Amino acid sequence: MELDPERITVIVPDIHARMDLVLRVLSHRPESADRDEQLLTLLQSGEAQLVCVGDYVHAESRAYGRWLKAFEEFSGGYIEHEAMDAEMRESLGTVEILLELKRALPDAVHLLKGNHENIANEEGSGNLPFGKFAYEGAMVAAYMEQFYGDEVLEAFARVEHLYPLLAVGPDFLITHAEPQGFYSRTDVIEYRNKPEVVFGLTWTPNDGAETGSVEQMISHYLDTTDALHFGGHRPVRGAYAVRAEGRYVQLHNPDAQIIAILAPERPIDLSRDVIILNSKGDLSHGEASGEDR
Ligand SMILES: [Mn+2]
User: Fold this and answer.
1) Which residues in 2-85 belong to E strands, given as ranges?
2) How far is the CA of 117 from the centre of ligand 1 (A)?
3) What mean pLDDT do residues 207-223 have?
4) For residue range 49-66, what is the model confidence (pLDDT) as tens digits?
5) Cα separation of 62 and 209, whole Å?
6) Contacts (Cβ under 8 Å, ≥6 apart) of 150
């Protein structure tokens, strides 16, 4: 997906069913804008564009206790389903907000695919079944089948398969995960027939990328060598972490609300452009910690 080089770009990492994060982003007033307006207004006027890096569903560790209760409900065939209802309200509510935005502002809102965009919990097409705190993938697929039916489940899955994998800006790239290898323009455009491209841009663990993959991606897609590649996927402790010799920027801190705002024709400066909207503790800006948890 080619981004508009003349708009402000707002990058939102892994949302994981945090509806409040989406609302806070939309009401944020970017300092780099020409006018003091909320992002939503700037999206409507065509001055800004929003890129979400994927992973819209599944509350993470903040809902650990609820996942354990929901697993008991799942094991009992959802005769009781209070905990899972709460989880699904947040997950489906987040996707509903994002898709309403996409439908209203198709040129200004871009939703990339993450590894959690796999409602059917399938293995194949670059997807793997998901389970971290419980059997989230299986639990969600069963819930969808039982309470919404196959038709809704299949339609939801079709939308997920259509989410793009890569956004190309003037001096930056955005994917869900660090590129595991190098994927050419043709590979990415033909990703629906190339599961290895889907997998390689959504699942890469820390230290799982081939040496030089980010640098190759940047030099293939962009004219400038002074560019960065942004992604989410693996949690970081500070505001962001850098890998791949400083070229790959990881934004996802599950305990905070962190975005990046890149203005056109202004060199990227992470200490200024990574914005902490909200955090529980005192996050030192720019502290890098690429540790997985
Ligand atoms: Mn992910």
Assistant:
1) 8-12, 48-52
2) 9
3) 96
4) 999 999 999 999 999 999
5) 28
6) none
Q: Phi and psi of 72, rounded to 5°?
A: -65, -40
Across the chain, which distance is largest between two alpha carbons, in Å?
57
CB-based contact 126:202 (threshold 8 Å): yes
Q: CA 206, 251, 65 angle in degrees (round to 5)? A: 80
C-alpha of residue 36 to centroid of ligand 1, in Å: 33
Q: Which two tokens stand for residue 185?
A: 């323009």
For residue 175, give both structure tokens.
């994917």
Question: Which residue ranges form the domains of the chain, and what is each CATH number?
Answer: 8-58+89-118+157-279 (3.60.21.10)
Q: Which amino acid is at 87?
A: E
Give me the pLDDT at residue 285, please.
55
Q: Calculate how far, in angstroms, residue 17's C-alpha sits from the geometric centre of ligand 1.
A: 13
